[in-house]
Amino acid sequence: MLHALDRQKIILDNLKVDSVTSINHLIQKTKFHESTIRRDLKILAVNQKIVIVRGGVIPLKEVDKKPNFIKNIEQKKKIARYAASLIEEKDSIIINGGTTCSLIPDYLENNNIKALTNSFSIASKLLNKNVTDVTIPGGRIYEHHSLILSPFNFETIKHFHASKLFLSCLSINEVGLLEDDENLAKFVTGLINISDEIILLVDDTKFYKNDGSFIVCPLESIDTIITNKLSSKVQNFQKACLRAVTVSD
Q: pTM of this prediction?
């Protein structure tokens, strides 16, 4: 019989390969009994080796990766702070990955909420804020974006319902929101379809950029845009959306 430390090393070695995984997947890979796996995972979590969330297990080295925030960080912080102020007690929210969205938990005051995110770092921050219910969808790891995207036609989260969806994008113009990855664009479109209120977080550098060739949604799908600057040349964004909020620099 393997010693507990040996079992835990095997679990961590599997997480090095998969980055995020389910308990059932670990049982299949390690052949350990379910009760043994769960006991070892609790020990690893107490020792701050992993984070256990609904939908998976994440090695701490993954959730603690610091995004390389360089450009427009102060603007992003102010946008995220305002977005966090919109979250009310008992809200059911989705926070999509992205540099600005990943700052929302830093300013979160209400932790009696349900939250779904496809970002490791956002999930970790929500747990550190003692959010009572955090869900991560299953799917493929997109290391470049530090996201989990489901390849199964949205099966993993189609039954989730959000009162508010917070998202960003690579760029935005008259066509709508744009991304550089087809699967990411499809995934975010799916998130929009299960959400009541769509809130876009973008700094002014995202407007009228030619980055991204995959349309996430038209402007009319967005309920609120939060940005640091809404110049005269982008007034049509304000017309297309129900609400545009400008936070001061």
A: 0.72
